[in-house]
């Protein structure tokens, strides 16, 4: 399987896990992918700032899930502030 395929799978799973943790109603397959992918970037940045190393598929999943949770928290805060 191509490398990018696994990033898509990890992004979908991370977005789905973040939705479960944050008690969301789900964002659908595409929404989970987008949240997981952006979460991977955010998680990688935050883990880098904190000097936390993660490797392998499990590390990527944890990093992307943490980032996706942070993304959902920020989006909900912005939505709540704009109401």
From TrEMBL:
<keyword id="KW-1133">Transmembrane helix</keyword>
<feature type="transmembrane region" description="Helical">
    <location>
        <begin position="6"/>
        <end position="22"/>
    </location>
</feature>
<feature type="transmembrane region" description="Helical">
    <location>
        <begin position="29"/>
        <end position="52"/>
    </location>
</feature>
<dbReference type="InterPro" id="IPR007341">
    <property type="entry name" value="Transgly_assoc"/>
</dbReference>
<keyword id="KW-1003">Cell membrane</keyword>
<comment type="similarity">
    <text>Belongs to the UPF0410 family.</text>
</comment>
<dbReference type="GO" id="GO:0005886">
    <property type="term" value="C:plasma membrane"/>
</dbReference>
<feature type="transmembrane region" description="Helical">
    <location>
        <begin position="58"/>
        <end position="78"/>
    </location>
</feature>
<protein>
    <submittedName>
        <fullName>GlsB/YeaQ/YmgE family stress response membrane protein</fullName>
    </submittedName>
</protein>
<dbReference type="Pfam" id="PF04226">
    <property type="entry name" value="Transgly_assoc"/>
</dbReference>
<keyword id="KW-0472">Membrane</keyword>
<keyword id="KW-0812">Transmembrane</keyword>
């Amino acid at each position: 399987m191509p490398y990018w395929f696994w990033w898509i799978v990890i992004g979908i799973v991370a977005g789905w896990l973040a939705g479960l943790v944050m008690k969301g109603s789900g964002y659908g397959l595409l929404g989970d992918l987008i949240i997981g992918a952006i979460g991977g970037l955010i998680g990688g940045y935050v883990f880098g700032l904190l000097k936390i190393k993660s490797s392998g598929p499990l590390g990527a999943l944890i990093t992307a899930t943490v980032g996706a949770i942070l993304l959902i928290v920020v989006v909900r805060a912005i939505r709540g502030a704009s109401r």
